[in-house]
Amino acid sequence: MTTTPPLFANNRSPTPDLDLAIARICALNCLEVGQNILLDLLVKLKYKNSEGKTLTLISLKYSFDRLAKINFLERQKNGAYKITDAKRNSVLLDLMQSPDLGHWIVKLRDHLPKGTVSANWMQKSAEYCWREILWTALIGDVSECEDWLEELQSQNHSLPTVTATLFKDDAGRQLFTSLLTPIQALLLRNVLAPASALLTDCKTAYEYALDKIDVFKQWPQFLGTLGSQAMLRGNFIGFHSANALMPETEQSIGKAIYAVLQGDYVAANRLFEQAAKLQRGEKSKRRVYFEGLPGMLYALACVGENTPLSLKTAKAQV
Q1: pLDDT tens digits for 266-279?
Q2: HEC-encoded secondary structure of 119-183
Q3: CA 91 → CA 33, 116, 127, 282, distances in Å?
Q4: What is the bridge-based pairing of β-strands 73-75 and 81-83?
Q5: Among 66, 67, 177, 286, which residue has the least CB neighbours within 10 Å?
Q6: Where are the domains of the chain?
Q7: C-beta neighbour count of 210 within 10 angstroms
Q8: Which fold has domain 1-111?
Q9: Cα distance between residue 8 and residue 5, in whole Å
């Protein structure tokens, strides 16, 4: 006798396991999933209809209609189905807490289409990258998750981030907190870094990261991104909290940037010099130069100090 999954506790169904499988497949995908793809996948996974016979599109329609009625699925204009925003994270959380998670990821990787961008057959589509980011985050594959985040970042797309999707409701936030800490750091940095450069909204991710800052003390690259976002928001307490957890070299650079923003160019230059000295020791190089924003601010501080030596340093830095 089959038991009704907790997600469908208040809804009687002759095929509760089949309904749950459909919901999981759709929740694990970025966009809609076609009826024929769902049918093919469910047959390969050996699901049956209510009479124990091979599934057909006609028998699947009863599950589709049932899931749509209880607000789990939305039928698209092209006939495909998509998980609703209201239920996606509840389904994912339920899957995360089950022993079947790894099994589902393996099966979906084996059977779901692997879409490509026609302009470059080696490049995966944004939707494919998105689902791989989600899947690798759920199973805790840090290296793969980082690679897929970089792949998606290189593309021009309008998809919401996985982080934004998970932060939409309580179930998603609960799921996010259960992910491995390095996975959380990667997903949060994926939101905060572009937000710092493009001045886009990242309030929810920023506040979560700041609240859990001690959890991320082993990931200085993420702390640097969080500190930059705090500084942009004028939250200097948050900036100093993040900076205090950084390695000594990064701490000096952070303090130097803060000094530049305060107009204390002399103090900023001493701190940049201290950071350069530490970097020379770390890299065994005679000369080191700061790249990006720190380099620009170092040059600005040197010009602001306006001594022969500082002006010479500014020229060398740029």
Answers
A1: 999 999 999 999 88
A2: CEEEEECHHHHHHHHHHHHHHCCHHHHHHHHHHHHCCCCCCCCHHHHHCCCHHHHHHHHHCCHHH
A3: 16, 27, 19, 47
A4: antiparallel
A5: 286
A6: 1-111
A7: 19
A8: Arc Repressor Mutant, subunit A (1.10.10)
A9: 6
